[in-house]
Automatic annotation (TrEMBL):
Region forming the signal peptide: 1-21
Domain of life: Bacteria
Protein name: ABC transporter substrate-binding protein
Gene3D superfamilies: Dipeptide-binding Protein, Domain 3, Periplasmic binding protein-like II
UniProt GO cellular component terms: ATP-binding cassette (ABC) transporter complex; periplasmic space
Pfam families: SBP_bac_5
Any one GO molecular-function label of the UniProt entry: peptide transmembrane transporter activity
Domain Solute-binding protein family residue range list: 98-495
InterPro entries (alphabetical): Peptide/Ni-bd, SBP_5, SBP_5_dom
Keyword set, alphabetical order: Signal
Record GO biological process: peptide transport
């Protein structure tokens, strides 16, 4: 485990971070790259084929199954072997938010006031075994990912919430053996799929960009074990998978550029090494032995300090906002945090500047006061719980007043964090120090990324039995709109018994109704205003303590081609067409 950064090192990082903020580079094809070049252009643009592209990750993903995952980096990576109905066109910064058809011929055709959406699949798309992809394969993918939550619990449950017959007793494809399946998804022919919703969903094209719409052949579905041998529709397919160690992809011979205008199929092979120490990943990126850090979380603290004080190395870094919020979720179902006054006390008590320092300084994120990050449409600047300082010390007057009003006295609780994310552990440690000053004694429990949401954080039964009052969280948008950011962490119907993202278990009727009304509104400007209003309502409930608007510091391997840092996938590099210099 990496040690926490000493104060002197953090100070150096912060100072260097100010220098980086002023750097820029021309990232277009044929130009010299520099710091932040991949946030504005394509670095090392090339169509050179061949070689082995190597990724690495400090832990292991929860799943490689497109229908059973909820990490942005797996959404990004899975596009190599799974084609959803729509996706985001590779592009730097906000250009990466451009939504384009992928498996579908075009964006959806809405009817019935936005309650019915129709898509036509591209002709000739095949699975890796040579069988043609049909609309029934897409329907089955949605059925298994949203209606078999006892087996596949890790992805979002939008379709379960919005399809017409989700309350009609359908038990999912593993229990319901009828050929009809969901009545609310029609497949009138092999190329057409029609979704029938309870109410208008103005951003449905965004929703079907999720890998949950990537087709799955029912005959080859292995339930929870499908993650070990996903049947590819993308430019690459599984060659081998050693759980917790390595995944190897090779070119899919059934893929055709004729029906895929997005993918280039550049490397011969793609290797992902798992459970590699972050410090080792950082060194391998610099040496060229690894080309991409899979999780896209950025370099560790010691590497960060070295990079930002070395002009040559700094030129290979990208520091971008990624539509992410770092926050502490407060469990509204565990006493005393079921009392809003207790939660408000926590809002005032957590020293956000101390958390920011623990994470690596301003280069890792600006201080936050809202649920929506500044780079999500709908963001409105405000602060319901302003923090005042006496010198370097946070003024706790408001925190103590609310804690006294809450009447809990001295209490003990548990705070959760991911053990392979030292910055998150350091942030949690800072939170513990802050809360102790008002009488909250929090004990830190750490769990791996691969099991954090499936077994621990946000799992109602676990959190209740273990007195979990607080959970560390970093959240990015499911798709780059206010609804795509807010719904799964604020709506009561998003709460699941496992794989839950509404860690606070907030179920406020007014917020639920506002979210439902906003997504039904076809007026984009009105929707965006509503998202800001919902943000404020959520902060009034004090179920989330915004800490920082996360920024990532990525090291761009000189041996990788077609590098773009994209907003669509949380500031990570777009993985669709990265190549390797031979």
């Amino acid at each position: 485990m990496r040690r926490s950064l000493p104060v002197a090192t953090v100070a150096a990082i912060t100072s260097a971070g100010l220098l980086l903020a002023g750097c820029s580079g021309k990232g277009s094809a044929g130009s010299s790259a520099g710091a932040n070049a991949a946030t504005t252009g394509v670095v090392n643009a090339s169509d050179e084929k061949g070689g082995t592209l190597t990724y690495a990750m400090s832990d292991a993903p929860e799943s490689f199954d497109p229908g059973n995952t909820y990490y942005a980096f797996v959404y990004n990576f899975s596009r190599l072997y799974a084609r959803s109905l729509t996706t985001f066109k590779p592009g730097p910064g906000t250009k990466g938010k451009e939504l384009v058809p992928d498996l579908a011929e075009s964006l959806g055709k809405p009817s019935d006031g936005g309650k019915t959406w129709t898509y036509k699949l591209r002709k000739g798309v095949k699975f890796e075994d040579g069988n043609l992809v049909t609309s029934q394969d897409v329907k089955y993918a949605v059925e298994r990912s949203n209606f078999a939550r006892d087996i596949l619990s890790l992805g979002p449950n939008y379709f379960q919430q919005f399809l017409v017959d989700n309350d009609g007793g359908y038990k999912g494809p593993y229990k319901d053996k009828s050929k009809e399946g969901l009545k609310s998804i029609e497949t009138p022919d092999a190329q057409t799929i029609v979704f029938h919703l309870k109410k208008p969903f103005a951003e449905f094209d965004q929703l079907v960009s999720a890998p949950q719409t990537a087709p799955v052949p029912q005959a080859k579905d292995k339930g929870a074990d499908y993650t070990k041998s996903v049947v590819s529709t993308g430019s690459y397919k599984f060659e081998s998978y050693q759980e917790g160690k390595k995944l190897t992809l090779v070119r899919n011979p059934q893929w055709s550029a004729a029906n895929d205008p997005l993918r280039k199929q550049l490397p011969d092979k793609i290797v992902l090494n798992l459970k590699v120490a972050q410090s080792t990943i950082d060194k391998d990126l610099q040496s060229g032995n690894t080309q991409v850090d899979m999780a896209g979380r950025g370099v560790d603290g010691q590497t960060q300090a070295q990079l930002l004080t070395d002009p040559t190395q700094k030129a290979n870094t990208d520091n971008a906002l990624g539509q992410r919020l770092v926050y502490t979720a407060i469990n509204t179902k565990v006493a005393p945090f079921d009392n809003v006054e207790c939660r408000k006390a926590v809002e005032y008590a957590i020293d956000k500047k101390a958390v920011q320092t623990a994470q690596g300084g301003p280069i890792r994120g600006e201080l936050a006061s809202t649920v929506l990050p500044t780079d999500i449409t709908g963001y409105q600047k405000y602060d319901l719980y302003p923090q005042k300082y006496n010198g370097d010390n946070l003024d706790l007057t408001e925190a103590k007043a609310h804690w006294k009003k809450c009447g809990a006295g001295n209490i003990s609780t548990t705070i959760l964090a991911r053990n392979d994310r030292q910055d998150e552990v350091d942030a949690a440690t800072s939170v513990i120090g802050s809360l102790k000053k008002i009488g909250i004694n929090a004990k830190l429990q750490q769990y791996p990324t691969s099991k954090y949401f499936s077994d621990y954080a946000g799992v109602p039964a676990f959190d209740k039995s273990n007195n979990v009052g607080l959970m560390m969280m970093q959240w990015s948008a499911d798709f780059p709109t206010g609804y795509g950011f807010l719904q799964q962490i604020l709506h009561g119907k998003a709460i699941s018994q496992s794989g839950n993202s509404n860690l606070s278990q907030l179920d406020d009727p007014e917020i639920n109704n506002l979210l439902d009304s906003a997504i039904a509104n076809t007026d984009k400007a009105a929707r965006e205003k509503a998202y800001g209003d919902i943000d404020r309502k959520a902060m009034e409930q004090a179920a989330i303590v915004p800490l920082t608007y996360f920024k990532v510091l990525l090291y761009r391997s000189p041996k990788a081609t077609n590098m773009v840092s994209t907003s669509a996938y949380s500031g990570e590099y777009d993985y669709l067409n990265i190549g390797v210099k031979k």
